[in-house]
Amino acid sequence: MPSVSYISGVLPNPFRFIALSCAAAFAACHPNGKFDSWPAYGGVSNIHYSSLQQIDTANVSRLHQAWIYHTGDADSNSQMQVNPIVIGHTLYGISPMLRLFAIDAATGQLKWSFDPASVASVGIRSLNVSRGVAFYHGSDEDQRLFFSAGASVYCLDPVTGRLLPGFGDHGRIDLHDNLGRDVSDLYVAGTTPGIVYKDLLIMGDRVAEEADAAPGHIRAYDVHSGKLRWIFHTIPGPGEEGYRSWDDTAAWRHLGGANVWSGFSLDEDRGIVFAGVGSSSFDFYGGRRLGDDLFADCILALDAETGKLIWHFQTVHHDVWDRDPPTPPVPVTLKKDGKAIAAVAQVTKSGLVFLLDRTTGKPVWPVVEKPVPDSSELPGERLSPTQPWPTVVPPFARQTVTAADLNTLVPDSSYQDIRRRFAGYRSGWYVPPSREGTIVFPGFDGGAEWGGPAYDPETGLLYANANEMPWILTMVDAPPPPPATGTTTVGKAARALYASNCMTCHGTRRQGGGNYPALIAISRKYNRGQVLTLLSTGRRMMPAFRQLSQAEKEALAAYILDDEGRQRKPFVDPSAKPVDPYSHLPFTTTGYNKFLTKEGYPAILPPWGTLTAIDLDKPAIAWRDTLGDYPELKARGIHSGTENYGGPVVTAGGLLFIAATSDSKIRAFNKRTGKLLWEADLPAAGFATPAVYSENGREYLVIACGGGKLHKKSGDAYVAFALP
After folding, report:
1. Is residue 8 part of a domain?
2. What pLDDT band is residue 513 in, cutting at 50, 70 and 90?
3. Which of 302, 504, 553, 631 would you label with 26, given CA atoms 20 to 30 Å apart?
4. 3-state SS string over 666-695?
């Protein structure tokens, strides 16, 4: 099959030569409760825990590189956010260009690779990140891998890497399908793997965060046929619970978002799947979605067999700050009043921890509705007067920025500049979006982020890494859609289209911001045809703009490429559609802009990245450390921390491992005290969660080193460490 490549001699007779080892490994870590393998995204139950203890606090300093695997397909902007899985003797991972591969877990030698671009109708490899794969084990003869690239979910034989044609349409299903309305022109992608329960593959997805977005309903598919078995409507319709939380009773027909973009966790014994649901689109203006907006920004517990709602808990009401849960709730067990309580812990972008009873959804400790500013300057908006606040469990990140927090490590002229700008912004806990600019802190990327926390069932500690970066949310009037009759120029039409579709990510002047690139002088890199292709197919973080007409794409291309000749021509769009009030909102934002000094540092004092251990039984902070360094500040004796992406893992050997930082290192801490015990340089930043496994009696730690975020170089390496 042309989409699969093999290393000669690696694959003998495929009569399940690894099936027995797959089955043994799977059985070892599930039925008897052991956590000695890494068979799923985030490890068993997605708690990032390994019961292996060959590597411990006494010998971790002797860790060295055991093997390195280069995928060979990174480019200047690529990323890898993959948490690989290990089944039997095989590690399964994903390359920067979304090739699924199988390598020997002991040596890093390639067994096979699968390239979805060879079976897709569009340039699938440029569409997105893909953070991992899901594995199904029915019997020794019935095992399957599930892997997403763009909107396609593929089903493969884990031994050969070949598509299994009985699943869906010749081995794939399209996540655009089965959402209850036509979203074929909207952005939908599977960036985080689904989770397997019995013979079901339960899937979430990523959708656009602009007004024109697909709904994020949760769906379960038959692992053999690919047929839809159940769907849970995260934007409920008539007769469904949550429907009355939307003032507009037609919202379910038009609005999007409320999607599970960060994956799931599972209580297999109870048959409960847990999810953190994203915010409803558009993220920053809710005038078309008044009300609490269930089940956006909710923790959900669903019957994994049927998709029926067991309970829900909303962490943010009527979210206009993009403060949705960034990771699945983690199953934990804690003690309260001498009793063991099965619970879930949800970490948030705000740096809060919600602890809820696993079967009822009731808070383990009181959560109060704290009054917040509820007066918006944006016509049509109506904010919630209160927001949930955990009263006993301590936050693991700072919540607000004051003048005393501003960065004094920079020259005085730079400090005076940030003081002046700070005085012009609005700040505080859940202060509404504004035209003058509102400080969102912790930032749009947390607090906690998609890497998720680690939970240690041995000590009862929950470990969460966090960003502490202030961002600025500035609202502006959105221009009306351009007239399509030739009464305006291509240039004027393009500027309106850019403001509505591109400015949020790429800035008011195409200068970029956050993790989004600048679009200045890109004619040096792309021609007109390439820009039109990008607008149609998307590229990694950028969604496809298939909802735009060809004339609108042509206008945007002329503007982005500074083609003044084309911009002067009349704008005529023969396929123009009537204006949709749900898609064309009166307000938009100037982009995802960090509050930085002139030198590019965060405008507040360190720490800018932290790692915190929370004792869930007390509950209290057990220890906290600054995570990561800027080399030039470290040389000055300043341990600053850095923004970090990817989560920690914790082991029975007394260790916590984490990469995640922008300084391209991986570190080991004493899990009980937070003492740094070991660190190693990586070929590129490991913006991913490590995996821990054992092969032939030897314990390994592996990390995907993809870089690409925070203006760091991209990489293509998976690096494994072990004792000599």
Report:
1. no
2. low
3. 302
4. EEEEECCCCCEEEEEECCCCCCCCCEEEEE
